[in-house]
Amino acid sequence: MKIAILSRSREIFSTRRLLEAGAQRGHEMHVLDTLKCYMDVSSLRPAIHYRGSQLEGFDAVIPRIGASITVYGLAVVRQFEMLGVFPLNESVAIGRARDKLRALQLLSRKGVGLPTTGFAHDIDDTQHLIKLVGGAPLVVKLLEGTQGRGVVLAETSQAAESVIDAFRELGANFLVQEFIKEAGGSDIRCFVIGDKVVASMMRTAKAGEFRSNLHRGGSASLVKLTPEERSMAARAAKIIGLNVAGVDIIRSKHGSVVLEVNSSPGLQGIETATSKDIAGMIIEFIEKNAAPHKTRTRGKG
User: Fold this and answer.
1) How far apart are CA 175 and CA 125, in angstroms?
2) pTM
3) Would you tell me how many other CB atoms lie within 10 Å of the CB of residue 44?
4) Contact, 66 vs 8, CB < 8 A?
C-alpha cells in the first residue's frame, strides 16, 4: 500500500514510529508536511499538490495534525477524502474532537459520564457559573488549548473569578469544570484502535502540578482498567467517530468519567509504558480496513 502521513516533521517520535512500522510491513510510506500541501478544488479534477508535484496513487492517509493548524489540516484531509483515499481518522471526527465543547455535548447526549462542566463566553454573573460546577476549586480551560496549555486550576472563588474575567477580556471561549481532587493529579490514557482499547497507562502529575500531561513532566505507569472503563473509552471514541483515539479518563468518587477524546494521541508515552507496538497495530488496522471512497461520514461535515 501507498500510505501518506500528514505531519510537520518526520523527526517527531510518533511520525517516525509509524514510518518504521509501515516500512517493516512492506508499505510505501510518505511523510507530507501538512502546510506544504496545496489543493486544486475543482469539480472536474480535484487534486492535491506537494512541492510542485501532484499527489497520486495513495491508498490511505494518517492525519497527525497539530491543534495550531487544525483548520488547514482538516481541509487537506477532506481533499484526500474527495479523492477516495482512506483516512485513518476522518475530517469530521477530527473536527469534533478538536472542538472540546462539541465533543462533550456529543458524549453527554449519549449518556457518557463526564465531569460537571459549564461553558461561557461573556457572562454577567460569574459567581453563578462557578456554582454550576460545584464551586472552587475548579478548572478553567480554553477551548483551543492542548497538552495542558490554557488549563488553569483556581483554588478559590476569588481566583476563579479573576481567571474567568481574564479569559473574557481576551474574548476567549472557555470551559469551567469541577476539580476532581480525589484523583490525586492522575488520569488514565486509554488508546483505542477500531472498537477496542489496545493499551492504557496511568499518567501522574509531577509534584506541585495538577496537569498529568507527559509533556509537562508527568510520569506514566501501567494500569488495569475495569470492564466499565474499557467499555466507556471505546464507546467515547465511537461516538466522536474516531478509528484511533486517546481517551482520557479520570477516577472520581462518583465513578470514572471521560475528560477528553484526542484525535492524534502520541505514541511515545504509551509504547514506553506498555512495551506494545502501537504503531504496528495502527498499520494493521489500515491494512484490514482501507478501501477507496470508504468515508463513513461523507456528506455530513
Assistant:
1) 15
2) 0.87
3) 5
4) yes
- pLDDT in single tens digits along all 301 residues of the chain: 999 999 999 999 999 999 999 999 999 999 999 999 999 988 778 899 999 999 999 999 999 998 889 999 999 999 999 999 999 999 999 999 998 889 999 999 999 999 999 887 666 677 888 888 888 889 988 776 555 567 888 889 889 888 888 877 777 778 888 888 888 878 999 999 999 999 999 998 776 555 555 555 567 889 999 999 999 999 999 999 999 999 999 998 889 999 999 999 999 999 999 999 999 999 999 999 999 888 776 434 4
Q: Is 167 helix (H, G, I), strand (E, B) or coil?
A: helix
Strands 244-252 and 219-222 turn out to be: unpaired
In the block, cell 475530517 appears at: 91
Q: Residue 189 and residue 185: Cα distance in Å, rounded? A: 13
Neighbours of 226 (CB within 10 A): 12
> In terms of DSSP bridges, do strands 138-142 and 186-193 run parallel, antiparallel, or are they unpaired?
unpaired
* Contact predicate 152/164, CB 8 Å: no
For the chain, domains (ranges, CATH) are: 2-88 (3.40.50.20), 96-112+182-286 (3.30.470.20), 117-179 (3.30.1490.20)
- Between CA 246 and CA 248, with CA 34 as vertex, the angle to 5 degrees is 10
Instruction: List the beta bridge partners of residue 60.
Output: 3, 86
Contact in structure between 265 and 236 (CB atoms under 8 Å): no
